[in-house]
Amino acid sequence: MNTDTKRGTLRPRAREVLLAAVQGLTLAVAVLPFGVAFLVLTLVSLALVPLGVGLFTTPVLLTGVRALADVRRRLAAEWCGVRIPAAYRPPPPDAKRWTLTFHLLGDPQVRRDVLWLPVDITAGFVTALLPALLLFYPVEGFLLAAGLWRAYVPDSGGTYWYAFVPVSGQATAFGAAALGAALLPVAQRHSRRMLVLHFRIARAALGGDSELTERVRVLTETRRDAVDTSAAELRRIERDLHDGAQARLVAMGMDLGTIEMLVEHDPAQAKRLLAQARRNSAETLEELRDLVRGIHPPVLAERGLGDAVRALALRLPLPTEVTVELSGRADAPVESAAYFAVSEVLTNAVKHSGADRIWADLHHTEGRLRITVTDNGRGGAALGAGSGLAGVERRLGTFDGVLAVSSPAGGPTMVTMELPCALS
In this prediction, what percent of the chain has a pLDDT beyond 90? Predict the structure, then answer.
């Protein structure tokens, strides 16, 4: 390796070590005053809650603690890529001081924030200071050899200990410089790791089971959405049966009763009513087939998601190109959710996009079923409470699926759906 290559390698490493030291020192300087102040004031405020004073001060202080924790979360992500999750409970609307105080005290994430403070001013302070010590301590060894030892060793004699090296003159100062040179690789290797360790300690204290809490919240919402969707689907089926097939069957029964009375006296009219009854029976059968297809399309059960989407595309009034790259089939509930999600997205594209062509792509990679529906319409589609895509998002959320929409003004619109699943 030539000299230029070595310099090109060492300079980024030196910058990384220096940056870690500066960042760690900045954290250490801020940790003690802010951490100790918030911890002491919060404890005092909690003690004053029975007297009523704490009802006014506690929400303010806990909000400040949260702001301090949020800053640490942001720095952890920006400086070291360490994600610290948070799952705060939303406060009740128009809450009184008493209600708000006890809401905050009952929030597990707020309690974790408060318990993080003593951890931060102890282990957090040490791990934040270590990157600076690992860098500046070897620098002190070099400065001792450069003559700084005279400031520590009086003229009358004495010893200044640099780690385990007793510095009493220029010769021993060179020994301190040698030790500093030996410590530099340690600083280069571990400075960034100490900063990462600081944020991981913060994550252990602040994160706790917040990911699990957030997971439970999401599952609760998706379960509620699934129940609501199932109830709405059941009501739709009941309505379709009552207003469609049932009404036709009742009419057919009345026609057959009329035919019985006319078959001997007016055969011609009886034949006309029989022809009408036959048409009604064919229409009823078609409605029942559509109803069954809406519950679970036979082609989906028999031939899988790819062919079901192809069959769906053939019934659309717009030219639709379907590309399928699936090596097997997912579980039936996942296939059903994916099929109806694609059906809803395609229907939205036909009704609202103003497109003249649609493309659908289905493939499976890295344990996820990925479906993309693209149209060349006017764009402007967005997720929201009033959007048909919100229902698709809820349907996918039942299976831990996600939905993303890219729809700039003027188009094109791309709707991407992903579902975790395995193919068999």
Answer: 21
Nearest 5°: the CA angle 304, 315, 338 is 35
CA–CA separation, 286 and 277 (whole Å): 14
The first and second tokens of residue 202, run together, are 């913060």
The average pLDDT across 319-336 equals 88
Instruction: Determine which helix (DSSP H) or strand (DSSP E) holds 241, and give its type and residue range.
Output: none
CA distance 262 to 306: 52
Task: Specify whether the CB–CB gap between 420 and 400 falls below 8 A.
Answer: yes
Q: Which of 183-197, 227-241, 249-263 has the lowest mean pLDDT?
A: 227-241
Three-state DSSP class for 315? Answer: coil
DSSP assignment letter at 106: H
Average pLDDT, the chain: 82
Which residue shows structure tokens 């409605």? 287
pLDDT of residue 222: 59
Q: Among 416, 417, 407, which residue's Cα sits nearest to residue 354?
A: 407
DSSP state of 296: S
Residue 78 makes CB contacts below 8 A (sequence gap 6+) with: none
Which are the contacts of 361, defined by CB distance < 8 A and separation ≥ 6? Answer: 322, 323, 370, 371, 372, 373, 374
Name the DSSP letter for residue 88.
P
Please report which confidence band the pLDDT of residue 5 belongs to, taking 50, 70 and 90 as the band edges: very low
pTM equals 0.53
Asked if 415 and 372 touch (Cβ cutoff 8 Å), the reply is yes
Residue with more model confidence, 374 or 184 = 374
Beta bridge partners of residue 363, listed in sequence order: 325, 370
Report the C-alpha gap between 160 and 172 in whole angstroms.
10
By C-alpha distance, which of 236, 249, 245, 361 is closest to 309? 361
Q: Which tokens in the block code for residue 81?
A: 């890529």
Structure tokens of 290? Answer: 């559509």
Over residues 256-288, the pLDDT tens digits come to 777 777 777 777 887 787 787 777 777 777 766
Chain centre distance of CA 222: 14
